[in-house]
Queue: 2 jobs
Job 1
Amino acid sequence: MVLQRLFDIILTLAKNSLALREHREDLSQEGYHGNFLSFVELVARYDHILWQVLDMPKGSTRYLSATIQNEMIESLGTKLETHLLEQIRVSPFFAIIMDTTQDISKVDQLSIVVRYAVITRSENGQLIEVEVKEVFLGVYAAIKHDAADLVNQGPWLPSYATARHEQICLFKPWSRVMRRLFGHLHWSTPSSSN
């Protein structure tokens, strides 16, 4: 029950692009403790369970340390990545967008974005809507720069792209095929759906 509340606080902060921590994270000291601990203190005013956690002695397991916060963030990230990759895997159409740039230490960074289609069907299998989604999957160190090596650097891309290669080749004239197959449907993109 405690962890669910803490996960909810982390999700709320992440959805609003707010940092979790500050320099001073000791709740026994006065002042600002960062967004995560400030939210925990706020919710604890109204929630008996979190109040009990904050009331525990300093050496107790309270799940509030920076290490636990990092583990929770990592867990949420893994779950989100798994969910996104599953959506991409069931999509009949997708595009992999990759770009490289050097960071300040002269290490080449590879960013991976995937654009894919989510197709909504009625109960009898009729196409209703095609929604185009775009997700950022991460930044990875780029070791080599030719196309085959870049594809193999993403942790999920090699097996997935190889398995779907024949389907990818079928849809090279993307816009003509899409218009012919789905021209009668309602289309929404990330910019038009908001």
Job 2
Amino acid sequence: MEILLLFIYIVLTASYFLPAFHTYLPHQPGRDGVIAKVKELLKDHHDLLLGFNVFLSAEAKIVIPSEAKKAEYLAKSADTEKKHADAEDFMNKLKTRSRTLDTHVVGSFKAIMRMFKEGKMSVKEVHKEVTDILYYHEDLINDFLRFFEKNDPIASASLLLEL
């Protein structure tokens, strides 16, 4: 039934769309009106709306706001992947080092991150506690401080807790 309703909607939309499309000429004064009408008719169908760009000149291309945000998101995603890789690398080192002798370290570390995320600890207290539990592992302390200070601390704690 849902598919039938979708096809009926498409046919009705096409009955409005086709007359507007047939009046479209690149240099016709009503071009902007036709483009506005097409945007209105296809507002819920982004793939079709973007496909309509094939018929438009470069200056009249339709850009969906979410597409602009998508480009911004893709730029940020590389940074996010780097943060995730750094966090994963740190947690792998921590788990590897504490596997035999200091088995409580990973649990204590996660408890500290959980308390910080819940607002029960300040950044300064987190630095002190992590430095205390990683006392003999200067490289891990440096990795943690670099990661924690370079990024948003609460987001860092959340990411470290996920791993």
